[in-house]
Sequence to fold (1084 residues):
Amino acid sequence: MLEIAAAAFIALGTLFFVAGTVGLLRFPDIFCRLHALTKADGLGLALIAVGVALLAGTAGAVFRIALVWFFVAVASATCGHLIARYARHGVRHD
Amino acid sequence: MTDPLVIFDVALALAIVALAVAALSVRDLFAMIVLFVVFGLLSALAWVRLSAPDVALAEAAIGAGVTGALLLKTLHHLRYVSGTLGQQAAYGVTPLTPVPIGVTLANAIFCGLITLGLAVAYLGAPAAGPGFDALVAEAMPRSGVDHPVTGVLLNFRAYDTLMEVVVLLAAVVAVWQIERGVSDAPAPVLGEVWQGFARLALPATVVVGTYLLWVGAEAPGGAFQGGAVLAAVGLLLLLTRAYVPQPTHRGIARGAFVLGTGVFALVALLVASGGRVAFEYPLEHAKTLILLIEGMVTISIAVTLAALFHGREPVAQTKGGRDDT
Amino acid sequence: MNTFLSLTLIALLLSILAGLIRVFRGPAPAERMLAAQLFGTAAVAILLVLSQLMQMPALLDVAMVFALLAAVTLVGFVVLASRGVR
Amino acid sequence: MSVELSPMILAIFLPLFGAIAAFIAPRAAWSIGLATLAATTGAVIWLARDVWAKGAVMLPLGGWGAPLGIDLRADGLSVAMLALTSAVGFLVSIAALDSLKDAARQRQYFWPLWLLLLTGMNGVYLSTDLFNLYVMIEVIALAAVGLTVLNGTRDALRAGLEYMYASILGALLFLMGVGFVYLHLGRLDFAGLAGAEVSGSLIAAMALMFVGLALKIALFPLHFWLPAAHANATAPASALLSGLVVKAALYIVLRLAQYMPFPSETLLTLVGLMGAGAVIWGGIQALRAERLKLLVAWSTVAQIGLIFVAFARAGEMGLTESWKAAALLILAHGVAKAAMFLAAGRIKDEIGHDVIRDLDRAPIRPTLAQFTFALAAISLIGLPPSLGFIGKWSLMEGAMAAGYWHWVAVTMAGTLLSVAYFSRVLTAFLRFDRVRAPVGEHQGWALADAAPLTLALAAIGLGLMAAPLLSFIEIGYPFGVAQ
Amino acid sequence: MTPDLIYGLCGVAVFGIGLVGALCAQDRLRRVLALKLCSVGAGFLLVVGAWRTPPATPDPVPHALVITGIVVMVSATAVALALIRRLQSLEADDER
Fold:
């Protein structure tokens, strides 16, 4: 039962990744691409992390998976923001 | 039916080869660096598949991360600072001596033949010897650590590792000799989101780096990986100009560069007493000594890699005078 | 289960490879950076799955390092792809 | 509890600690450097006495022993190379005191880089492990590039970058070879190589390592980086690079040659042919060179070729003797070339340029430096009683005994070429008829001439000590008695 | 088809590609990158060589060697890049 649930999560997560990539390739401009990618792969990773955590079993592993997910989520949001700033008006220096 | 994992391996291997070709042939230098970083990322994955997580860590952190940053820094310098690529910012090609196409072709065919020969030699290679694993397994209880790779790096072949730290020291001495100057360029404006993230990311990176160092005694990790992750903190500080190296900091920096080498060499020398030879740690202190060495080496690696990224001795450059101190 | 995880890996790898097209085509550095971000996240996902598949919990540490470095590299891309810093 | 020191450890660690100290305390760098060199020389003398008394000595680092650990080993050949390095190094250091006296920044970085270089070279001469050799040649490479670009001129930087590319590529080819050795044997120490059975991967490994090292030695046709790098570096750096650095990679070739699984006739002939190519091409280029230092650098290419000819002089059967001729030439070239580069640097400093055509128009005549240059040329040309003469003689003797007259012909041609190109310089020293200004006959004498002059005298005088030198090199029998 | 075979050939190929780049590349930066590719290729060979016994316990010595190789390579790269930067600055000054 647990395995099926995990598999479902992982499959769904992978699907999101693929969708994000398609968005990166097919969408017309940088902002659409940014929009598609950051959301899709963030969610994809979250789902995969849940799936792997279900399979992993030990508390230590679950904790570390959670940590990885949390960091990636925050980092990818920030980086998405930075890329958007860069795309709009470059990075100013003062 | 073949194992799908084999398909994954083949796909990964092909991707790595394709990336190598792409990185060398893509015209845009920025794209070249991105492709190279991805190449490093995928090689690290391949090494994970070969059950070499330590190597994967080192490659991801140093091979892809720091090297990528160094290349990027240089490209930035060529485009915006020295302006040698200024006019052709997108497609910068810095000429060496122009090589006729025939020579290039001949070289490529030559290299292809060599590669073919190597591939044949590789395929025909029967592993004749048993390898080191039995020896390592037998010696591990006397090494003072539980993780074989750390045991090899810091005990069985500690001499190599010492010399590797010496290479790093030589590199930073050479780089300081080659370039100098204090930059007065303005800091980049990255916005409040970044500020908030930096407050989280910098301490997190320090924690992860220290964790890698500490876990190295029994699991993948160790001085080099930990040092490289800590160097990432330095890279961020330098990039965002939260820290700007000043001439007065040179003393401390020099001390940090030589700390790892000095402590490593001193310990190696001083343990040679009571019938022991150099590098032969007394068993009851082995773990402590190795941790001491690793700690100092980590500091040195972190500071050195950051200094290599900064890429110059922070001295005010006088006009025309080549020889100021 | 293992077969399924392997298939997942292949799908994730393919999404990385597809993203490479974006690196090639560009046109601006921003697109390339975006693709790089995808690679970082996808590599972390691959590592998570591999840690389960190869039964190596140590890979979770590797994943953490990947995540950190992906962020640092991206900041490097953003800052160094523009004028001003020395 | 007292620390037990071994001269082998000291020979590697003293320069390392010296480099650290010189880097931390730039103002005292020169005194630290000289003290370190003196101490290192002492350690080498201690080691030489040990080897003389006991034969080859071993030290298993960490107490593990090969193949798991790394052993240090010293025999006659290693000690000879160590002695060459520290003796030449010491004299070049003294010369550097003077020639870098006006360049504070160069002086500050010369010492740490040079001491790191010394660490690496001493490490190579004592190593018995392939991977350890790889790390050592990288130490040497980085320090040597640092020294090449010490003066920071555009030409030096360009040459240094080429040198860097060649050096890294050579080291990586070597590393790939190490990978193949590991693949085949599962171990990396010399002892493991000795009994290995020949296979495709071992042949690939040896080929990769040889090409990698040839790139570092600048063996024709892989010599492209050397002339510019050695000619544009500052004088003491040139002396170190040409006299010593190249020898480290040469030594590795000499060392590994005995483990080559197929020292076949064809292979040795190929090596000899590359050497012959270097002798001829290097000689021609030296004839055409317009600047003194460039001429000296090209003559290095030719002399390196001669060493390989000496190695191949008598084919497979004669290898047990040929390596000694090669070793003698290595020592002779190390001493004489260091003297010559220092002298050329002195001449350039005094006259202000080193364009050969205009040397005889200079109002200043740095007589002593010119004399030194001539003495060094005598050894490099191979006139008796210099060490170069003994080396060439044993080369030709062996080749004649084996009936390999073509190598004799190559050696003669090389000698004639060297006479021709050195005469260009020597005549420029001697002719006064075109001098337009009054000659300051006794200008340009300086204490700075002492070190190169000593080296040049040694290059000549060592020829008289060739017999004991040869019997010392044989201690530990690098090529085995029964081979 | 075992992973060591696949990645071994991959390593040889990457080394060869790096070699082509090191000899043919026009651009200073690209040549540095080509050399780095060579070192990764050599690393592959060593890591693959570690698979002598069943995959669970690869030989740790080559792993340690490759880590050393990676650190050595980054040092060399840093020096080469510093040379390139310095040289380009000087050349830029010449043109002005």
